[in-house]
Structures are given as structure tokens and as C-alpha cells.
Amino acid sequence: MKVILSDHAGFCWGVKRAIRLTEESLDAYTDRPIYASGDIIHNRQVNELFSKKGLMFESDITQYDSRGVFIVRSHGLAQNTRTAVQEKGLEIIDTTCPFVDRVRKRLEELLQDGYYIVVCGKKGHPEVSHLVEGLKDDQYTVARNSAELESSLTGWNTHTKIGLISQTTQSQEMFDEIQERLQETCTDLRIYNTICHATIERQSVVRELAPQCDAMIVVGGKNSSNTKNLLQICLEYQPHSIHIEDVDELQQLGEEWFKNINTVGVTAGASTPDNIIDSVVTWLKNYSDTTS
Length: 292
Ligand code: F3S
Prior knowledge:
Layout: E1 2-5, H1 13-28, E2 34-36, H2 44-52, E3 55-57, E4 69-72, H3 79-87, E5 91-94, H4 98-112, E6 116-120, H5 126-132, E7 140-143, H6 146-150, E8 161-166, H7 172-185, E9 188-191, H8 197-209, E10 215-219, H9 225-237, E11 241-244, H10 247-251, H11 255-258, E12 263-268, H12 274-291
Parallel strand pairs: 1-12, 2-3, 2-4, 4-5, 6-7, 6-8, 8-9, 10-11, 10-12
Bound molecules: FE3-S4 cluster.
């Protein structure tokens, strides 16, 4: 069995930056409590490591010690939460990815120019919550695809001026689908494709690799949006595709899963560490050696 690791698998620039800033803070502020309101990145192992080094995951601001340090995650932070943390007196270390900031700026431009906002993304995802924070219900809607847009209760189709933006890790296919649906009815549509470069790069590499393989393995956190989107793309080209979090899940697949596979492709989400990807590739190569 041939094992092909896709180019650009694993950490993106924004995730590396968030990890570096968090590590530096944990090293620098050993005498002060350090908080984050949730996962720094969508990877269990990395967050567990931070927790061992003293990072406290706590979403309830009332529990924070005012001498503490607060780490803003790469997905960004709602302004009202930021203000509340600042008013409590904590120092803020901001790891928000600049690409996420750029989307928020685009959204503000659209609002200023009187556009109703359609965000192509997942409702409730931390990045999307940060983006739409403070907007009234009749100013925006969030949809992952055209079916969700159709069932949106906010009356998007009554607006003549619509601005389309995207969660940075959304799939290009879903963005195109929503764009096409909006173009059917909207007379004044302004489009900002704000899917980040790292996501576009990973998705396009997978579109080329998956059709050449008999199976695809996508490695990444189960709550990682960009990993789930990579799986969807793999499934379009290769139905024998699976999403695993680590090598333990791979070992549990059993021989049946690997039957008739000559070539297996491996890719990984933007928050998957190299050591996890390496262990998956090594396991596959060993499996191949022992079964051939
Ligand atoms: Fe930033 Fe894109 Fe990575 S938004 S955190 S570079 S996936």
C-alpha cells in the first residue's frame, strides 16, 4: 500500500502564531493566573499540554482573578467580552488571526454601506459568533449552504442590497453555492470571498489528491471546522474517506477498512500537530509493510 501525505497538511500560519504567543505567555507570566475562554486551537492534545503548563480554560469571567492574564483565541473575541475582561483589570494577549480580523473589517464596511449580511459559515462557531456580535437579527443571517440560506428565518430574500462574506475556514464549494443562489434574486450583491489562503491551499491540494487514491484519511480535531470541510471534499472524490483524531482511531478501523487499497492519501486540518500526522503516516507504512 502506497501512502501519500498531502502538501500543506497540518498547522497553518495563524495556528502556529497562536501557539507561539500562548507558549510565550505561559513562560513569561509564571506568577500570574492565565485564562482562556475556550480551546486555543481545535486540537485536544495541544490544549491538554497548555492546561498542564497552567493555562486555565474558563468561560465565566466572574471567576477571573483581576491580576491575571487573558488569552484571546485565534478565532477572535466578541467586543463585549473583551471590554468585560479589560474592566476587570486583566492583561490581554491577543492571538486572533489577522485573517479573521480582516473579515470583521469587511463586514463593518458592508454594514456602513447599508448591506444586509450573509455569512457563509457555521452558526455558533466561535469565529462566526465573534463576527456577528452586536448585529441585530434583521441585519444578517448565517448559512453553511443554500438549503440553510433558504430556511433562514430572517427574510434575506426581501433585501435588495446583500453583502456576502465567509467564515475563514469555509469550503469553496459551499461559498460558490450560496453566491449562485444570491445572484439569482439579488440586484445589488457585493461579494467578499474571505476564506483564508491557508484553507484554500489545503482544499485545492486535496481535490487533486483524493481522486488518485483508493482511500483518504483526514486527521484533525472532531470540532475543527476546516478538518470537517476537508473530509467533505475528500468524500466528493473518494467515498472511502474517514476523519480520525489520532493514530488510536486508525488502529481501531480493522483490516476490512484497508481491503483493496493500493494507495491511501493523508491530509490534516490546520490545527493538527506534526507529531500526530507523523504517527498516522508511520503507522500506515508499518501496516503496509506487515501486510504486503
Ligand atoms: Fe488564520 Fe486561516 Fe489558520 S484564518 S488561523 S490562517 S485557517
